[in-house]
Amino acid sequence: MKVRKAVIPAAGLGTRMLPATKTVPKEMLPLVDKPALQYIIEEAAAAGIEDILVVTNRAKSAMDDYFDYYPELETRLLQAGKDRELHEVRHAADLANIFYVRQKETKGLGHAIWRAKRFVGDEPFAVLLGDDIMRSRTPVIGQLMAAAEKYDASAVGVQQVPLSAISKYCSLKVEPLEERIFRTTDMVEKPRPEQVFSNYAILGRYVLKPGIFDILENQAPGYGGEIQLTDGLGELCKRERMVAVDFEGRRYDTGNLKGFLEATIDFSLEHPETGEWLKEFLKEKAAAL
Ligand code: G1P
C-alpha cells in the first residue's frame, strides 16, 4: 500500500492569528526563515510523497507564488554570488509536484478534504494539517504510512493531551495492538466531558483510504455547523480497519500565538545562524526578569 499523494488543507481564515493573517496567509508566516507551509511540505517529501495538493482559497495566492521559480530573483542572486540563498529559493520550488484547488466556501475540514477527491482518485493518501508543525527523527507522516501499510488500514496520528484540553481536539476510542499502535473504533470531535473516550487526540496527521470520500460527500454538518473530518473518520473506522499511531515527535500548534512563538524559539535555537546568539540573548533576558 504505497502512499504517493498528500493533501494539505490550507483554506482556513486564520482567525486565531489576526491581524497578521488579514492579508498574509497563516501558512506563509515565517518560522525563523521559512514559511510554516514549507515545513509541512518538507515533512511529506522526506517521507517519499511526490504529489501534494494544497486546498486553498481566494485570499492565499502567495502560497502558489512561493513554491514557484522566480527567475528575476534567481538571476540576481546568481550574479551576486549568493549561492546559499539561490539554493534555498530553488529548493522550495523543487520539493514536490504541488497542485492547488480552491475550497470556494469555508465549510470545514471535512469539506476541504472532500475537495481532494479528483486529485486522489482510488488510492490511499496522506493528510497534513498546516497548523501542526512536527519535530521528529522520522517524519511523523512516515510513521503513519508504515503503520497503514503494516495493517492495511487507515492510520491517524495521535498523542495524549491533558484531559482539560481534550475539548479543543477530538477524542478516540482505542484498543492496544502493539507498542504505540492502537485500533480505533470510534471518535468524537470537540467532545463534551461526557463524550470523552480517552485522552488520545488526533494531532494533524492522517493516512486515509479513499473510502472516506463517499462518506464526506453525504455527511451532515457537525460541530460548529461545519463538515468535520473527524465525523467522517468515525464512520470510516466502523466500515474499515483504522489504526491510531502514538507518534514519536514534538508537535507545535502554530495556529495560535503561543504555539507559534514556542516553535519560533525552538527552531531559532536549532538554527546555525541564530542558535548561539539566541541562547545568550535569552540568558540575559531571563536574568533580568
Ligand atoms: C482539527 C481537527 C481535530 C484535531 C485538531 C488538531 O481541529 O478537527 O480533530 O484534533 O485539528 O490537529 P482544529 O484545530 O481545526 O479546531
Q: Concise description?
A:
This protein has 289 residues and is α/β, with parallel strands linked by helices. Helices cover 36% and strands 25% of the residues. The chain contains 11 helices and 13 strands.
Structural description of this entry:
With 289 residues, the protein is α/β, with parallel strands linked by helices. It has helices at 36-46, 61-66, 71-79, 83-93, 109-114, 117-120, 140-151, 211-217, 229-239, 257-270, 275-288; strands at residues 5-9, 30-31, 34-35, 51-56, 97-102, 125-128, 132-135, 154-160, 170-178, 181-189, 200-208, 242-246, 250-253. The radius of gyration is 20 Å and the shape is globular. The mean pLDDT is 94. Bound molecules: 1-O-phosphono-alpha-D-glucopyranose (G1P). 1-O-phosphono-alpha-D-glucopyranose is lined by residues 109, 129, 132, 169-170, 189, 201-204, 229-230.
Which SSEs are present, and which pair or pack?
Blueprint: E1 5-9, E2 30-31, E3 34-35, H1 36-46, E4 51-56, H2 61-66, H3 71-79, H4 83-93, E5 97-102, H5 109-114, H6 117-120, E6 125-128, E7 132-135, H7 140-151, E8 154-160, E9 170-178, E10 181-189, E11 200-208, H8 211-217, H9 229-239, E12 242-246, E13 250-253, H10 257-270, H11 275-288
Parallel strand pairs: 1-4, 1-6, 4-5, 8-12
Antiparallel strand pairs: 2-3, 6-11, 7-13, 8-11, 9-10, 10-12
Helix pairs in contact: 3-4, 8-9, 10-11
The protein binds 1-O-phosphono-alpha-D-glucopyranose.
